[in-house]
TrEMBL record, chains A, B, C:
Catalytic site: 259 (proton acceptor)
Pathway where this protein functions: Bacterial outer membrane biogenesis; LPS lipid A biosynthesis
Species: Roseovarius pacificus
GO biological process: lipid A biosynthetic process
Catalytic activity: a UDP-3-O-[(3R)-3-hydroxyacyl]-alpha-D-glucosamine + a (3R)-hydroxyacyl-[ACP] = a UDP-2-N,3-O-bis[(3R)-3-hydroxyacyl]-alpha-D-glucosamine + holo-[ACP] + H(+)
Keyword field: Acyltransferase, Lipid A biosynthesis, Lipid biosynthesis, Lipid metabolism, Repeat, Transferase
Protein name per UniProt: UDP-3-O-acylglucosamine N-acyltransferase
Transmembrane domains' residue ranges: none
PANTHER family according to UniProt: UDP-3-O-ACYLGLUCOSAMINE N-ACYLTRANSFERASE, UDP-3-O-ACYLGLUCOSAMINE N-ACYLTRANSFERASE 1, MITOCHONDRIAL-RELATED
Family: Belongs to the transferase hexapeptide repeat family. LpxD subfamily.
Enzyme Commission number(s): 2.3.1.191
Amino acid sequence: MAYTIEQIAQALGATAFGATDITVESVAEPAVAATDQLALAMKPEYAEQLSQGQARAAMLWEGADWKALGLEAAIISPRPRFALSGLSAMMDPGQGWATGIHPSAVIAEDAELGENVSVGPLAVIGAGAVIGAGTVIGPQCFVGAGTSIGQGGFLREGVRIGARVRIGDRFVAQPGAVIGGDGFSFVTPEVSGVERARQTLGDQGDVQKQSYARIHSLGSVWIGDDAEVGCNACIDRGTVRDTRIGNGTKLDNLVQVGHNVVVGNDTLLCGQVGIGGSTVIGNNVVLAGQTGVGDNLFIGDNAITGGGTKVLANIPAGRVMLGYPAMKMDSQMEVYKGLRRLKRLFADVAELKKTVSNTVQSD
Amino acid sequence: MAYTIEQIAQALGATAFGATDITVESVAEPAVAATDQLALAMKPEYAEQLSQGQARAAMLWEGADWKALGLEAAIISPRPRFALSGLSAMMDPGQGWATGIHPSAVIAEDAELGENVSVGPLAVIGAGAVIGAGTVIGPQCFVGAGTSIGQGGFLREGVRIGARVRIGDRFVAQPGAVIGGDGFSFVTPEVSGVERARQTLGDQGDVQKQSYARIHSLGSVWIGDDAEVGCNACIDRGTVRDTRIGNGTKLDNLVQVGHNVVVGNDTLLCGQVGIGGSTVIGNNVVLAGQTGVGDNLFIGDNAITGGGTKVLANIPAGRVMLGYPAMKMDSQMEVYKGLRRLKRLFADVAELKKTVSNTVQSD
Amino acid sequence: MAYTIEQIAQALGATAFGATDITVESVAEPAVAATDQLALAMKPEYAEQLSQGQARAAMLWEGADWKALGLEAAIISPRPRFALSGLSAMMDPGQGWATGIHPSAVIAEDAELGENVSVGPLAVIGAGAVIGAGTVIGPQCFVGAGTSIGQGGFLREGVRIGARVRIGDRFVAQPGAVIGGDGFSFVTPEVSGVERARQTLGDQGDVQKQSYARIHSLGSVWIGDDAEVGCNACIDRGTVRDTRIGNGTKLDNLVQVGHNVVVGNDTLLCGQVGIGGSTVIGNNVVLAGQTGVGDNLFIGDNAITGGGTKVLANIPAGRVMLGYPAMKMDSQMEVYKGLRRLKRLFADVAELKKTVSNTVQSD
């Protein structure tokens, strides 16, 4: 798919300079760009690489002198990273899948498929499932009984969605994502050691050998519009009501969302984040990679965690947190500095003790 | 499936009150329960929500005054969370799958399927596999050559079980679970930096560029009765003998169990827990979400860890542990308090040094 | 498959002793070995177990007195763990899959399959894919359009590889591995709270409700020769260029590699390791289980991390690191010791303050 520099700039709401009728077929990093590629050099530090490549045109940072960079044409956007979103959508070559319903797919007779739905080879669609117009169910996907998926969705290969899940429009799911597994919910006949240790913060009392009985998940999963779920990520069913993921919320690979969790709108859960059962997470939250959140907690709107943060208590709205246990990021940084000087502190105190002891004795 | 309040109470060994011939079709949270639903209000804090919903009957906490709550009938159990287990099993609508062997499944001629085994669409069952009576092999599952699964099991969609795995009765596996992947076991021709760093606790000596040779996993996996494995969780094969998971042990989503690991009975491994190779974990242990356990360690019976705990050394039986590195929970809590006061401590010591220095000089 | 002790020793470059014409059919741990099994007792601590088993022959540690151990034959290797690699390859019974192309596989007409390629039941191979000679595509695998896999590869059941991925020779992938999911890359129209918090190290300023736009991944994934990817592990596509995994590099189960990441040669990423986007990792690196590495970082050759390490800054070549945040292992050990004595330190300082205060007053 070839576009002129002019067409691209218009689509992105950016400004085109120079020979704007040059056409490009794809994008590339500046050092390896060919003559028919648009080089992406959206920060000044990429300037030097431009001279190593063959690009005639580039997307540049605001204020860049495209002529001095040896280019024939340029696109400049005030927020180039945002422009990249539109550009990448234009240039995406996709997965190369055929459209239509593959004859090897196993589709229940009473499933309802909207207009222009595609179903890939060896996919399974269960009884009473409803798939909205234009949605693509990829190869080897599974859609459970009574599940509904909105319009314009895209399920990559091997996505698995259990029964009675409800998902909004423009849903994206990466390979191997699982939605609607049973919650991890077990109970012992008598009060367990964990229940006691939670109450006492550490003392489980006299322990007793007990086996677990299973609490079945009767709820399902509800997901809003414009959500995305990463590779091999998991969202469990609720116990009585549905587990909920809000509009515009994105889950990265290998994220775990426990039963009954409620995640708000426009929230990002990065790679390998885990959310314990019944926790509530607000809107516009960002939890960085490997963040863990205990069960039955509350995280307010706009909260942010740094990578690896372990959240053992509620987080108010707007807080930026880091560490294990999670503290405000600036306090945690102070702690980290302190830890690096801890050996010195022990030495200082030992020295002081000696000095003071001598001083007191010599008095 | 409709039940009277009387029938439910009898099945749960609980007590029914009021108009016990009222029938309910499903359960709901109190605030949204309809007239044909049983409201679940098993703690006093749910009392208020009952008045917002339409339920005529509810499951309540011990000592609740059901009449004052405006109900026509009630079920009261001394341990309502345990009663919920039985109730949820009665009310579970299931996944809505057809029974029997789907014609699209690929089943080896010499596989042995017990009475009333169901095999879903596009599942694969390998040579010599043995499936016990009443077990359900879900859509798109894979069961390897020579693998046996006991009676009454339930494998959700897309579960993958390798060759020669032996699994007991009433096994439950969630979508995407993998049992019998190869162990992560590689060796360099000469002693490696990691081997040296382990011996010296940090010094790997002169490092040398080496490639790895693969140690094949010759063992398989053995799983007892009543075990459950979560979505996209992984249990690796043993090197020489089998990796072992005991009776009644439950693994949550995205849990990783390395090669040669032995897990005892009635143990819970919560979401994203990881167990390094050859580690031995006792009975009735609970490892909370994102706990990590190093390789070749030992965790005693009834041990408990808090969320995110990183276990770098053996844990004796009955211990409640927290943090990175794992300490007894109460000691770790003390450490956390100390960290919060660390800045103040540095200031105190600096002040002391000044005072003592002045005092000594003025002597 | 039966081998004589002589044959095994020759294949491994080890030395055979005693009745080297004894044949063995498989290997076993010493305590449970039968007469037709080779016992593995490669450390002196296994000596005692030998007497419990029935083995006539064993693989022993250097210097072992095989006659005194009651054996009829023995194999001794200077580095027995390395010898185990060759031995395990000889003795591996494999997955028991049929060779050839299963009729239920869905293979694009223009896909190119080399000599002796096997494709398992219900696998899907996309348009223009190229599979090298002798490679096995397991049951229910997916290979995307335009993807190439080299010679002698082995893909276990349910592996998923997206479009345009390029993989070298002798590739091994465990069940459920996903290669070529889309990168987790989203951008807000205006500068976001996370972008501000990164600049200020904790202060996100005035937050503003914004939704995310998706940055499509236009790159794919490149993997060298002799690489291995674990169960349910994930490697994301690059944004513009390919994500890269070097020759001889091995990823364990549930590992997450973000978009644009570059991993060098002969590097091990152990279970549940996560690597943030655009990070560069050198050659011969070992990241232990649950290690997390932030985005846009650099880890030098031969670096090693301990289990659970959270890497928030670059690591120079050859460093051995531990903890959260990552420090040099010996410094971190000092910190851990300090934390255990922290309560005592607070008490000492409190005592000192009292003493000094009294001393100063009494002056």
